[in-house]
């Protein structure tokens, strides 16, 4: 199947907030008819962190899609892309602990040869409309939506519910894993609309209003402007959206990429409804961490584009999650339903992965497309490209039943090669919880381990935690608290905080350029260069 689209139309406005924490991708001025994927994210966190979170998300997904192209964006492929994005969150938070708590929702449209994949996390939405009618839409990951589904509250009560700003899923990083909801739509026809929007749009645009606007004979530009006018000066939140219309569809979907059509029941209409059900009027509450829910992630290199930072109001206090005593029976009902839904989701997720890999994956494994990494030209001492270190120290193959035998690094710590790269494991073959997959893992020295990802070297500790992100052209082992590294042609020593400890000796009087490692800005700002004159001895 081959799809073409009309010129895509995006917008993002500050609305009633003091700054805009939404991010759309691509930027409205950069959108073309050749763009295959579109994203709208709503950042959460305040203090400028929400806009950073939404920016990291769209850049991370775009980076993964560009580097790992696939003919069809399957649920497994998009979950793996999310793993990549959450690893970026971890990489950022390792240097910016003050950003803990930042998060973002996600809506995505990915057009491909099997139709369209729609993915979402949180309470931003994607609509699929045909002939002026909503034929399907995503389902909000919010507390109020769960209460509605359980019949605990009515739509009228949902409008004013004190916890209507509580979302149950958000992208927050590996320590707070999340599953992405994906629906592959094979039934895509010329004239169909896809509308991606944040909840700020939903403050003023209901399903019925959206049908009325997109069902007219006006141009797409006029329809976009009408939707903007509905929100301008009338919302308490940022409001952002993308409008994408299918122009032509040709060819058939191959059998291997046929997915079941989604089931959608249009919600009951409330009399005189002019706004959406869930209207957020304060900073949302993000979900609590959930352990061991999704597979391990990979560590990406941050893109060079700096993340804009603006001052915003501090987030409002979290809503009280405990209802009054009169609501206890309803709470128990919701808890029972939520438990059933959670169990069903876990089983469905494992079943879906078994379809892709031929076996059900455990909580610590994931199927990812094979990635060809370029060879590195400059390596640390005693290393070779794409070859494990010290193979003679391999332990028994019986330790781990699948894959290559692990290689001893130090004590009871091993490294093991998987299809995604090298990971740290213990003597039982169990993956260290905080470790990622790398293209190469060196030996331990001074409680630090050299690692390589995408031709750049960095350091992790013996628990697999990132200590100095991958940014060097070459990096030697630590000894007596310092290590020799090279970046942009300059060699110098760093300490265990990643700061310059000592430049490499140069000839007397020679001017030496030293790259200063800024742990706070290194991830998203250009590296600063300082020049100084060496003092004669």
UniProtKB/TrEMBL annotation:
Residues 7-246 form the PPM-type phosphatase domain. Coiled coil: none annotated. It comes from the Bacteria. PROSITE patterns: PPM_2. Residues 297-307 have a biased composition (Pro residues). SMART domains: PP2C_SIG, PP2Cc. Residues 1-24, 289-324, 358-395 are annotated as: Disordered. PANTHER family: DUF3298 DOMAIN-CONTAINING PROTEIN (PTHR37841:SF1), GLR2918 PROTEIN (PTHR37841). This is PPM-type phosphatase domain-containing protein. It comes from Larkinella rosea.
């Amino acid at each position: 199947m081959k799809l073409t689209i009309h010129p895509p139309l995006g917008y993002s406005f500050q609305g009633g907030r003091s700054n805009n924490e939404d991010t759309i991708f691509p930027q409205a001025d950069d959108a073309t008819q050749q763009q295959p994927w579109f994203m709208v994210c709503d950042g959460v966190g305040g203090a400028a962190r929400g806009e950073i979170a939404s920016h990291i998300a769209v850049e991370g997904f775009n980076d993964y899609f560009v580097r790992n192209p696939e003919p069809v964006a399957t649920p497994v492929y998009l979950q793996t892309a999310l793993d990549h994005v959450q690893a970026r969150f971890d990489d950022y938070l390792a240097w910016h602990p003050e950003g803990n708590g930042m998060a973002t929702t996600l809506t995505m449209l990915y057009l491909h040869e099997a139709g369209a994949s729609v993915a979402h996390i949180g309470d931003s939405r994607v609509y699929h409309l045909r002939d002026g009618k909503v034929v399907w839409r995503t389902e909000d990951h919010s507390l109020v939506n769960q209460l509605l589904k359980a019949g605990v509250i009515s739509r009228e009560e949902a409008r004013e519910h004190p916890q209507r700003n509580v979302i149950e899923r958000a992208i927050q990083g590996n320590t707070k894993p999340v599953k992405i909801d994906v629906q592959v739509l094979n039934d895509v026809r010329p004239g169909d609309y896809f509308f991606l929007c944040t909840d700020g749009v939903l403050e003023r645009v209901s399903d019925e209003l959206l049908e009325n606007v997109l069902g007219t004979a006006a141009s797409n530009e006029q329809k976009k402007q009408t939707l903007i006018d509905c929100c301008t000066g009338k919302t308490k939140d940022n409001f952002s959206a993308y409008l994408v219309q299918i122009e032509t569809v040709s060819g058939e979907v191959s059998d291997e990429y046929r997915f079941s059509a989604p089931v959608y029941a249009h919600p009951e209409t409330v009399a005189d409804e002019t706004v959406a059900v869930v209207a957020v009027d304060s900073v949302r509450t993000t979900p609590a961490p959930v352990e061991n829910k999704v597979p391990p992630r990979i560590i990406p290199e941050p893109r060079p584009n700096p993340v804009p930072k603006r001052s915003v109001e501090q987030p409002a206090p979290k809503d009280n999650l405990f209802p009054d005593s009169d609501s206890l029976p309803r709470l128990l009902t919701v808890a029972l339903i939520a438990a059933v839904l959670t169990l069903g989701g876990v089983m469905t997720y494992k079943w879906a992965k078994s379809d892709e890999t031929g076996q059900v994956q455990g909580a610590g494994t994931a199927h990812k497309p094979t990635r060809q990494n370029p060879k590195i030209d400059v390596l640390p001492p005693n290393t070779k490209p794409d070859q494990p270190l010290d193979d003679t120290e391999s332990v028994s193959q019986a330790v781990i039943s699948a894959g290559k035998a692990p290689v001893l690094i130090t004590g009871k710590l091993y490294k093991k090669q998987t299809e995604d790269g090298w990971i740290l494991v213990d003597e039982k073959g169990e993956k260290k919880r905080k470790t990622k997959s790398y293209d190469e893992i060196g030996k331990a020295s001074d409680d630090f381990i050299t690692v390589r990802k995408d031709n750049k070297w960095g350091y992790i500790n013996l628990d697999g935690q990132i200590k100095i992100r991958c940014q060097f052209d070459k990096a030697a082992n630590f000894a007596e608290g310092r290590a020799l590294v090279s970046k942009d042609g300059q060699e110098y020593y760093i300490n265990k905080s990643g700061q310059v400890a000592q430049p490499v000796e140069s000839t007397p009087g020679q001017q030496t350029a030293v790259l200063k490692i800024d742990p706070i800005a290194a991830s998203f700002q250009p590296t600063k260069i300082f020049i100084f004159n060496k003092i004669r001895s």
